[in-house]
Amino acid sequence: MSKILRVLVSLLFLQASASWADSDSVYDSFLQCLNTKTKSSNTTQLASIVYAQNNPSYTPILQAYIRNSRFNRTSTPKPLLVVTPLTESHVQASVLCAKLAGVQLKIRSGGHDYEGISYWSSQTFIVLDMFNLRSITVNIEDNSVWAQAGATLGELYYRIWEKSKVHAFPAGICQLVGVGGHISGGGYGNLLRKYGLAVDNVLDAQIVNANGELLDRKSMGEDLFWAIKGGGGGSFGVIISYKLKLVSVPEVVTIFRVEKTLEEDATALVLRWQDVAPTTDDGLFMRLLLQPVSSKVKKGEKTIRASVLAEFLGNADQLVKLLGEEFPELGLKKENCTEMSWIESVLWWANFDIGTSPEALLDRMPNDANFLKRKSDYVQTPISKDGLEWLWKKMIELGKTGLVFNPYGGEMSRIAPSETPFPHRAGNLFKIQYSVNWEDAGEDLEKNYTTESKRLFSYMTPFVSKNPRSAFLNYRDLDIGASSNGAPTYEEGKVYGVKYFNDNFDRLVKVKTAVDPENFFYNEQSIPILPSKE
Ligand SMILES: Cc1cc2nc3c(=O)[nH]c(=O)nc-3n(C[C@H](O)[C@H](O)[C@H](O)COP(=O)(O)OP(=O)(O)OC[C@H]3O[C@@H](n4cnc5c(N)ncnc54)[C@H](O)[C@@H]3O)c2cc1C
């Protein structure tokens, strides 16, 4: 494109950006730019991947992967365009054209960001929606799988299972989560005590950088490769795909769910859980859910229900014996246990009925969302009995927000904190997720529940990590710090950055400054660049 034409396109974009109503001109200029950058003669195909606001498909496309109804309102800021690339070259061109236009590019894979920052912004923006790029190529011979960013975890697990019943991948529990955002942010699931996080099992990757170049591990270099294994999506480029190392699972695994309320001495169970869950056999993952519920014993009163949901890489006899010795407070019996294949356990964790066909993992179930708020914390010393009893009172007082304790230890403790950007390794007993879901819209309801989760977070202060009070990036929480307007400054980024990345924050900033010095890729909690010396 000649210099004059480039200036004209930029001007047209800028003009269009100022006027949201003028979506025709934005669309035309973007399309023209895509045409030029892809050197494509197929204008019809290009036209079919760009959705302007006046296109009847714009809203369904935008809403299809909104997984948190808090950000699905008329007042939620909308993108100028939604671009749905079919090829790597479409991604490359989209980066260059958004850059030329001076508009922010928000990247969306599965849309599960808890604060919705893949599809809204306070800035003028375009959504690059990766759902068409979702191929999965499993290679059992070399124990690996290439998964494109737009694939869901359910699709990944299904394709592995199609090829082998004794291979798996250690990633998240919800089958609808997208590969792109999930792995960029660390990615944990019920195999983490045995095999670590998703990012501990990444072998290679493809990324489109801010210059529109398509790079793999070799061409991007080890610093950038390190950064995209947990440093968060939307900071370094557009992930096209990850090459992942498969792990082995036995033909039979065992799952169980055991629940106790305070009347059944849930306190003793939780006390003991804190010792056992992070130290037991690496093949055992016992998640603990704590929820205020109505008491069945004391009518009209509330109690706390402690539910242990677990998966063991072995059979029921071995598990009952192990927990009989280590965790008698649980009272696990063989009849509480169900033996199944690994893929059946994936379905069980995803709340499907036992016996559901694995094909259910291929269902993307668009637009199936509640209102959600999440926060996170790390616990490094067990909470005392007095502490727990005080906590129960506070949870009952607040009424709705639950806590999910996810045990660490095992492989998580053997990986150095600097090995990947995700730093929360040895010394962390478990991670807490604060979890509140509601079904009805309304500002008062939202204020009520988000305030409730903040209050519980505040009550937890004495029990959790300090200096910094660490947090898990995949449980995105804008309350812990965010940019005030547009790209975060270094000082703004440091506030949330040290919580998510601890001592790895500065290395991430260095990588970011080297690979994207103009800070083209940014969001409310992206990695900032170093302040310029002028
Ligand atoms: C119901 C539910 C269950 C969950 N369960 C788990 C769990 O078990 N374990 C766990 O670790 N996390 C879990 N999460 C959190 C989830 O892993 C993160 O929200 C993750 O970032 C979602 O990825 P996504 O692609 O679906 O989201 P998106 O909203 O599409 O993206 C999230 C972030 O990554 C960026 N991004 C997305 N795609 C790309 C790309 N291709 N290149 C560069 N940047 C990109 C986005 O811009 C955004 O900043 C869960 C979330 C939900 C809502």
From TrEMBL:
Protein name: FAD-binding PCMH-type domain-containing protein
Molecular functions per Gene Ontology: FAD binding; oxidoreductase activity
Secretion signal, residue range per the UniProt entry: 1-21
Any Gene Ontology biological process: cannabinoid biosynthetic process
Segments forming domain FAD-binding PCMH-type: 75-249
Keywords on record: Disulfide bond, FAD, Flavoprotein, Glycoprotein, Signal
Cofactor: FAD
InterPro entries named in the record: BBE, FAD-bd_PCMH, FAD-bd_PCMH-like_sf, FAD-bd_PCMH_sub1, FAD-bd_PCMH_sub2, Oxid_FAD_bind_N
Keyword Signal attributed: yes
Lineage per the UniProt record: Eukaryota, Viridiplantae, Streptophyta, Embryophyta, Tracheophyta
Family from the record: Belongs to the oxygen-dependent FAD-linked oxidoreductase family.
Matching PROSITE patterns: FAD_PCMH (PS51387)
